[in-house]
Amino acid sequence: MTSFKAPKGTYDLIPPRSADYLAVREALSAPLRRAGYGYTETPGFEQVELFARGVGESTDIVTKEMYTLTTKGGDELALRPEGTASVLRAALEASLHKSGNLPVKLWYSGSYYRYERPQKGRYRHFSQVGAEAIGAEDPSLDAELVILAHDAYRSLGLRDFRILLNSLGDKECRPVYRAALQEFLRRLDLDEDTRRRVEINPLRVLDDKRESVQRQLTDVPMMRDHLCEACKSYHEQVRELLTSAGVSYEDDPRLVRGLDYYTRTTFEFVHDGLGSQSAVGGGGRYDGLSEMIGGPALPSVGWALGVDRTVLALRAEGIELELPAATDVFAVPIGDEARRALFRVVTELRRDGVAADFAYGGKGMKNAMKSADRSGARFALLAGERDLAQGVAQLKDLHSGEQTAVPLDRVVAEVAGKLR
Ligand code: HAM
């Protein structure tokens, strides 16, 4: 035993549970790959300034939650707290937007870091699958992303999730709303911190969970009532496209998100079995972000789905994923000669695409059979001196107990046939 532990707010993925995470990442990204999104990977850290400008100077993510460091060369870096700013930075740096083929559609999967107060579903190191469609303003693109996330969750068998939908307006109507909201909020009885928030980021006040604040917000002005004609019509089209795709959603006029870059369409996927950390995914349109980080105007939309919380949602619904067997055949040699012969067969099986493992470490027959059982293999492949003298191995079906002698050079074909 070591006295070292995974750092606070983090946890290790180890077998057999780790297989669920791989399967979830696969399921969340499969619909994207079928919809023309290309795989993208960016560094785990970026310049602090990218997130400060992109995610927003006044957000919790930037003010409280970033892991920052100064390199020996004097660069100010931050472990990435989210993927959108990095992926857009990468697309701009590679001039993908100049290809004449807009939108640029990218997907990604990786680890993100936020110095948050850890609790169930909220970690300091977590994993997301994300998608960004860069450089097009088209309600079908917003709808496409919501539909793809919806279908991804459904493909895992999840049912108890809801989609919350809102529009946050654009650079025409949002400032007018912001002013109206501030005027309303300044008249309320709020503590000093919240009063400061009213001046810097008034929309976040809508999201305040405290009853003392919520009680005063009954007549608060809503973005919905301040949307300009263009935003209203855009939002209506997104809603119609979702409805005609059979995707139900709830209009949530109070939905604001923890990142400053959103404009127009915003949405969150919440799961009702998760308690307070119920958002399994979220996203929206960010038409101004490219300019905020020094690029040209590139209206864009995207989302990120939390892998950790999706796994928790599966557990909450009692869903067991059907995973392919980790091992199909487990070889148990008796004696040195059998060891060499079966090791050769195991190598051939693997080369032929059959998942095979071997009783390493010279264990006795009884222990080796225990390992075979534990591996979950369908077949054990046994051989001793007498078998080798006849050029065969014993293929034992661990489900039925049935055992047959198979010529060593026929094992691969025989196993492949039976597994099919
Ligand atoms: P976000 O809402 O901050 O959005 O994160 C997306 C998802 O990541 C959340 O719904 C949640 O499932 C998961 N998540 C976030 N923080 C944690 C945490 N501390 N522990 C566990 N899971 C967490 C974004 O990150 C945006 N970049 C999404 C986006 C993409 N918007 C446009 N494009």
TrEMBL record:
Reactions catalysed: tRNA(His) + L-histidine + ATP = L-histidyl-tRNA(His) + AMP + diphosphate + H(+)
Cellular compartments annotated: Cytoplasm
Residue ranges constituting the Aminoacyl-transfer RNA synthetases class-II family profile domain according to the UniProt record: 24-324
Keywords assigned: Aminoacyl-tRNA synthetase, ATP-binding, Cytoplasm, Ligase, Nucleotide-binding, Protein biosynthesis
Superkingdom, taxonomy of origin: Bacteria
Residues binding L-histidine, per UniProt: E82, G83, T84, R114, Q128, E132, R257, Y261, Y262
Entry's EC annotation: 6.1.1.21
GO molecular function: ATP binding; histidine-tRNA ligase activity
GO BP annotations, alphabetical order: histidyl-tRNA aminoacylation
GO cellular component, one term: cytoplasm
Uppermost EC category: ligase
UniProt-listed PROSITE patterns: AA_TRNA_LIGASE_II
Self-association and partners: Homodimer.
Family the entry assigns: Belongs to the class-II aminoacyl-tRNA synthetase family.
NCBIfam families xref list: hisS
Protein's recorded name: Histidine--tRNA ligase
Protein source organism: Streptomyces abyssalis
Lineage, broadest ranks: Bacteria, Bacillati, Actinomycetota, Actinomycetes, Kitasatosporales
Gene transcribed to yield this protein: hisS
